[in-house]
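Before relying on records like the one below, remember that each one covers exactly one chain. Contacts with other chains, cofactors or solvent are not represented anywhere in the record.
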Amino acid sequence: SMPSEMLLKIFSYLDAVSLLSVGCVNKRFYELANDNGIWLKLYSSSLQPKWTIWKMKSKTETVSLGCAALHDKKPGYWKKEYIFKQTSAFKTRIMRLVKLLDPYTGLPCKNKEAMKVSGLSWIIVLKDKNGKEHVIEKPHLSFKDTSVTILWYGTDWPCLDILSTLKLFGVTPLLPDQSRPPNKNGPRRFSLIAEYHLANLTESSVAVGSDELVQLFSLSPGLLVGIWKEKNEVAFVMASLHYNQLLERSILGSATVQYAPPPNKPLLDDIDPEYGLHDYSLHLDLHGRSCMYLCGSFKGLFCRKGDIENGYLRLTVVSLKDNRKHLPIIGTLGICWETDVFKGNVKDCFVMDLTLLDETGKPFWCFSAPVYMELSSKASGLYDYMGHIYTADYVDSEGKVCVEFVWLEETKEYITVSLVLYVSTKKVNSWYGTNY
């Protein structure tokens, strides 16, 4: 029953975040909280005092900061302009932090710092077949050299049988304030990272492994779903996100459309389909969410014309015959998981983080994904290693990875004896604008 003039006076003392929040109370508050006079004042105060002229929609407008003639603008116009200005400045500040690259991995050096400054978090949204959405927050994070592993679990998740999709979002405050931590109840911006279909999950996805309590299923890209064996219900969800373009995908997308990176601009060099790829670098991590099993870097990778067949270019990283590059696995391979009550470890599987850099040091092919091992039918013919051979393969639209391990019973450890990358010719052609 309070007069609108009095409410507007009260609203004029609020900051932008409070105005956005009070606009959610009811329709009347929403209309009053869109008042152009209030938002122009906020917009003007965010400018330097000497700024009275700026470009807007490719036209130059001169605005008197004390002007009250706002009737030519639709309600909410200056609110949108203020939000656009603040979010643009925020994105610029974050992207500036990740410009410095690590020569070791070819990835931004200050990823963690940028994530902290942005107030970035990740959530999953489970949608059932009736259209109802269930938002799962409060993830547990584990940072590695080139990826972050995110684990969600809870006791009130919907039944697997009624779930249709799972969406993974990056979430940041709509109007971040560097002077105070982000308010989880304040307005937020959602950026869609990936969407997964959960219908017929156990039949349509890849079974990674199991222990006494759960069975793991992998969905591309980089998602692992743990299912309770007894109840056939979701126990936890684990996502592996590679640092390459992680911030862009988590911040620059929208709630409905994923971020699309710009196409590569190749440099003029000696790339020639007759010559093949040359001087590539690889950084490889194998881990189990909380522990590292292998970390290796390889330089000077190349392929010749004879290494191109069946739509792939082969890059041999570790050869079966060259034991100088054979790498031991530290610890027992497995993926650790936990919920509110139970903990476990699914053996013979791990998360693979692959970062392949081109000859200029730019990330060419990057992923972080769960991979499982299986016993090979062939026995080791190596003089140095007598034991069972295990294989672990990964495939996506950009290429394939084939790894072979030998199990040494005497020392109770795995040795990596073969590692071969198969890069899709379509990926290479789109990257260089050539025709392999």
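The chain has nine helices and 25 strands.
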